[in-house]
Design goal:
alpha+beta, seven-stranded mixed β-sheet, 20 strands, 20% strand, elongated, disordered C terminus
């Protein structure tokens, strides 16, 4: 999947300009991927409905245009009063400005040999903005095109607000990239046809889930008091935030300070923590621990060997991570012969749903390698799909719409296929971030995910118990055979 050059803030700006808060953006065309030609543009973008076209030039400008009607190859003008041109960046600095269409008759022109073409200046006979014509080849640095904004002047089809061509795009048509997005609206399934059945969205259901977690106990024959759940994921995905969310539910108020969270270039988690949850301050902890690790990133963070030691229970609580030094048996506090109770009983990949499609190859390879080690040990794997409010506007308004959101279902399917995990083990959640009060939907999703982890751990314990029982029976048979 090709990565968009637009940021989440850019998309928010377009939603404001389009007056379409539930808009979704699908990348249709990318010059570096599809070629810079009129044919490539029209093959991929004709008959797609509303589209947004963005050019990025070598001077650091990002600019383009929006039309609410479909492009075609018929050589016709689009009559679109809602069309507009825009500038997002000026010398890589965010300076958004919108130029509204003032002559809808010539809002855009569909030329089979050209890329996106907007407006017509009745004085000069030039189009307000032509991205490019014919075919333009990449020279190793950019696409040196024959584009033009010559018609962006009095007499054109857009309100220029005293803006010059230099102000708009630097009069530079050497593009590092061109992108065209299809605009659609987020979809919900029918109320009686969710893609996953929920227990419900009532205080009673929250209470049932809390009770399940509160009274949960591992299989007593294995002498494990607390199951250990390992949280692994890239930086900023929400590992520490998941613990804070669970902790908040049992404290009865939102607390986001015990586990360090936030947005930073590198992981905010620097120590290995095996967090416990206590319904009452100073009281008895519940029978699970959420083990928080340093975030994964390109070239930094824990490696495969480090995670193996975590899985095997050799690394102590409060262990200080070092991004440049791997864990070894000589590391401080290293346990060379940990018991089963100290090992990890359920592994959890924490994946940001808003960026999973553009996850770096190196991070994906790290997670895939870790998955292999998890499978070798027979440890169950769950995926927490976080930040679901950022990928569906309906869910942003009401978390209980999660199982009615087509977009969330697509993300679950994508993650399931990407990591080879059954869909039932992909749990969409939203952590507490900006909220100051508890939210029923957030609580139910988080508790449902934790319950699924416990159920998977129980299956792991059952397998372990069966294996021990089988070994014991085999040893008894051997002793009887030798008598």
């Amino acid at each position: 999947m090709s990565k968009s050059k637009l940021s989440s803030q850019d998309f928010k700006q377009f939603k404001v300009w389009m007056k379409h808060p539930k808009a979704e953006f699908k990348l249709l065309y990318k010059a570096s991927r599809d070629g810079c030609s009129g044919q490539a543009f029209h093959n991929l973008c004709d008959n797609k409905g509303p589209t947004l076209s963005v050019a990025y030039n070598t001077a650091g400008y990002a600019f383009g245009g929006y039309v609410s009607q479909s492009w075609s190859s018929a050589g016709n003008n689009l009559n679109d009063p809602s069309a507009f041109l825009f500038r997002l960046y000026d010398h890589k600095q965010s300076k958004p400005i919108k130029l509204q269409c003032t002559n809808a008759t010539y809002s855009a022109y569909c030329d089979v040999n050209s890329g996106p073409t907007f407006g017509y200046n009745v004085n000069s006979g030039s189009h307000d903005l032509v991205f490019f014509s014919a075919t333009c080849n990449h020279n190793g640095t950019c696409f040196p095109t024959n584009g033009s904004a010559a018609g962006l002047a009095p007499g054109g089809s857009y309100h220029i607000q005293n803006m010059t061509i230099q102000d708009f795009c630097g009069n530079n048509y050497q593009y590092t990239e061109i992108e065209v997005y299809e605009i659609s609206e987020a979809k919900l399934f029918d109320e009686d046809k969710p893609w996953r059945k929920a227990d419900g969205w009532t205080p009673k259901i929250r209470g049932v889930l809390k009770d399940y977690v509160s009274v949960y106990a591992p299989l007593k024959q294995l002498s494990v008091r607390q199951i250990r759940i390992l949280l692994v994921g890239q930086i900023g995905a929400g590992k520490s935030s998941f613990f804070n969310t669970i902790n908040s539910i049992y404290r009865g108020y939102v607390t986001t300070t015990q586990a360090t969270t936030g947005c930073a270039p590198h992981s905010m988690t620097t120590k290995y923590r095996m967090y416990e949850v206590r319904p009452e301050r100073g009281g008895q902890s519940l029978n699970f621990r959420l083990c928080d690790t340093m975030g994964l990133e390109d070239g930094q963070g824990p490696g495969s060997s480090d995670l193996c030691y975590l899985l095997d229970g050799s690394v102590p609580d409060w262990f200080q991570f070092n991004s440049t030094v791997h864990i070894t048996p000589e590391s401080p506090g290293f346990e060379k012969d940990p018991g089963f109770a100290s090992k990890i009983h359920c592994a959890v990949f924490v994946i940001d749903s808003s960026t999973v499609g553009v996850m770096s190859q190196k991070v994906f390879e790290k997670l895939s390698d870790i998955r292999g080690h998890v499978n070798q040990r027979g440890i169950p794997l769950i995926i927490l799909l976080t930040k679901i409010d950022q990928v569906c506007p309906y869910v942003a308004e009401d978390v209980s719409q999660v199982y009615h959101s087509e977009h969330i279902q697509e993300k679950v399917d994508e993650v399931s296929a990407k990591f080879g995990v059954p869909r039932a083990q992909v749990m969409p959640i939203k952590n507490y971030e900006s909220e100051t009060e508890l939210n029923l939907g957030i609580d139910i999703l988080a508790l449902s995910a934790l319950r699924q982890m416990m159920r998977c751990a129980d299956s792991y314990f059952d397998d372990r118990y069966d294996l021990l029982a089988s070994d014991k029976l085999s040893n008894m048979n051997i002793r009887q055979a030798t008598k």
